[in-house]
Amino acid sequence: MAQTPDNASLNETYLQISPNILASFPKFRPPVDLYVYDPALGRTGCFHKAGERLSTEGQAEVARFAEGGLLFLLRDDYRIYAEHLSKRLGLLLVEEGFTPQEVAEIFFLAFRDRMEDFLAQPREESFEALRKDASVLAEYLWIDPARVAFLTHTMDREYSLAVHSVNTMLVGLALYLRLTGGKVEKDVLVSLILGLLLHDVGMTMVPKFIRDKEQYLVRRDRESIERHIEAGRNMLRRLKVADPVILECMEQHHERTDGSGYPDRRFVKGISEAGKICAVADSFSAMIGDRPHRSALDAARAAETLAGDSRKYDPKLTALLAVVMRESATA
C-alpha cells in the first residue's frame, strides 16, 4: 500500500482507502463519498458521491488512485464505513491508518450484528460466522493484548440480548488478559470469546414478557429464567458445539462462589476459571445496561458493587474489574 501523504490536517480529516478495502466495496455504487488527493496542488477534492453509479472507466480510475495511496473518505463518514467494514473483519489485521478507537468500534458493530443474526437463527452457518470473527479478534488481541482497553470503551447501554452478549465478551476478555498478564494462546482466546458471547443464548427461549417484566418476578417466572441454562445447553448440543470453555461459560455464569447460584449450586472449587470470569462479566454487563425495571449503573458504581460482594464473586476478578474500568475510562 502506498504511503499516506505527509499532511497532518489531511490525516485528521480523511481516512485512506487501500486497494484491499476498495475491493470490498460494491463496484458500481461505493457506500461513501470518494476523495482524491492531488499532490501537485496539495489539496483533496471529491471524485465520486456515495450511492451514485460509478462507470467501468471510473472504477479503473478509482483503483489507480487507491494503488497510488491517493484515495480517501471523510472521517465524518466513518460510521457508514464502519458498518461496511464490520462485515469483513479480516481487513483489520492487514490495514493501517485506523485509530485504535475506530478498530474497537468496528469490532463492536461486527459482533453485535453477528449475535443478532445468530440469536434470530441459531444455525451452524451463523455459528461458523461467529467463530470466524472470533478468530480475527483473537489474532488482534494476541498481537497486542493492551488493545483490549479500547474495546471495553465501546460497551453500549442498549437493552438487547445481542448488546449484552458483546458487552460481556469485552469485559470477560479484559479480565482474562489482566489475569494472565497478556500471555495467552490464540485457540484459548477463540474459545473464551465464543463462550462469553454465547453464555446467554438460552434466554431466547424465555418468553419476552418475562424477560421484559418491570414488576417483581414470581416464582414461576424465576424458574422459567433459570431454565435458560438448560435451553442454551440443548441449543449448543444441536449445533454440535462441545468446546469445554464454551460450555463452562454457559453452564456456570450464574453459579456463585458461596453456593447460592444455579443451576448446580456449585461452590468456589467447583466453578471453572471461565465460569468465574463469565459470572463477573455477565453481572457487570447486566448492571450497566438499561432495563425496563431499572436504570443502568455507571461502570465505576457497578464494579464497586461487585467488589463488595466477595462471598458470591471471585474477589481477585472483581478487583481486576475495577482496574479494567479505570483503563477503559482513559483509553
Question: Which key features would you list for this structure?
Answer:
331 residues; mainly alpha; Hypothetical protein af1432; elongated
What does this protein structure show overall?
With 331 residues, the protein is mostly helical. The chain has two domains: 8-80, no CATH class; 89-330, Hypothetical protein af1432 (Orthogonal Bundle), CATH 1.10.3210.10. The chain is built from 16 helices and four strands. The protein has helices spanning 8-13, 19-24, 56-67, 78-85, 100-120, 124-143, 148-152, 161-180, 186-198, 208-211, 219-226, 228-238, 244-252, 273-288, 299-307, 315-330, and strands spanning 14-16, 34-38, 43-48, 71-74. A four-stranded antiparallel sheet has the order 1-4-2-3. Helix 5 (100-120) packs across helix 8. The longest helix has 21 residues, at 100-120. The chain is elongated and about 70 Å long. The two termini are 28 Å apart. It comes from Pseudodesulfovibrio indicus. Residues 137-331 form the HD-GYP domain. It holds the Pfam family HD_5.
CATH architecture heading of the largest domain:
Orthogonal Bundle
Kindly state the percentage of residues in helix.
55-70%
Secondary structural class: mainly alpha
Would you identify the regions where 5 or more consecutive residues have pLDDT less than 50? none
The separation of the N and C termini measures 28 Å
Strand-helix topology:
Blueprint: H1 8-13, E1 14-16, H2 19-24, E2 34-38, E3 43-48, H3 56-67, E4 71-74, H4 78-85, H5 100-120, H6 124-143, H7 148-152, H8 161-180, H9 186-198, H10 208-211, H11 219-226, H12 228-238, H13 244-252, H14 273-288, H15 299-307, H16 315-330
Antiparallel strand pairs: 1-4, 2-3, 2-4
